[in-house]
């Protein structure tokens, strides 16, 4: 069963708030359909390209209004998932969400650390197909600049970071249990890039979506466990210092045989005509991704 993140978010926020107040409530959820294990806490200073998308109007203020992840690819440019900006997710077109913001440099959503920057423009990939989940990306323009050093390099087509077996790390503030227990502090999980045949077998045309190698990349662990989950959507999957994916979809979270599916960043680069790190080049530490 696919449980699109934002659709599922409003209700679990109440659970998350309750769990935060009474920590015992979050222990051993009996009905969990997948468990993100192997994740570990990280400081956003070590992944400054990881940002939170926020609307307190739509999602409440407890966790700084966070509802999706995003990735800084230029001083005023953030990539996220198209489905994060859908009517279904926001309940309104994105330009009518007045308090839509990007939160940078904040590890813990319960604090006021870092910066909240207004989103001055949104562009949703017109090629996004909510049936297959192909083309699940959108571009946010920020009203103020972030430091160039916050941007991550993009992996273009042919980049060795896409090779099956490559170690990758996914970052987010999403559900850590598959049960609506949203993290308040940033976490990361290490997964491996999987080969397209395996992903196609895991996700033939179904109600959840269809794995399409041209626009998606999938990652996980054979035994399940480590994975992205609801609330992580739009956030980064990084390999060899470059961005290879945006959290997009999957069946449940951390289930063996149901890897996480990510928007393939080389396809984003192609559609947007972005400059990316050439295949085989050393990872630029920062600032290598540039919008036209
Ligand atoms: C979602 O619906 C979602 N386990 C995100 C990631 C995954 C599944 C679902 C991957 O936002």
Automatic annotation (TrEMBL):
Residues 1-27 form the signal peptide. Keywords: Disulfide bond, Hydrolase, Protease, Serine protease, Signal. InterPro entries: Peptidase_S1, Peptidase_S1_PA, Peptidase_S1_PA_chymotrypsin, Peptidase_S1A, Trypsin_dom, TRYPSIN_HIS, TRYPSIN_SER. It comes from the Bacteria. Belongs to the peptidase S1 family. Residues 36-292 form the Peptidase S1 domain. This is Serine protease. The keyword Ion transport does not apply. The keyword Signal applies. PANTHER family: FI18310P1-RELATED, POLYSERASE-RELATED. GO terms for biological process: proteolysis. GO terms for molecular function: serine-type endopeptidase activity.
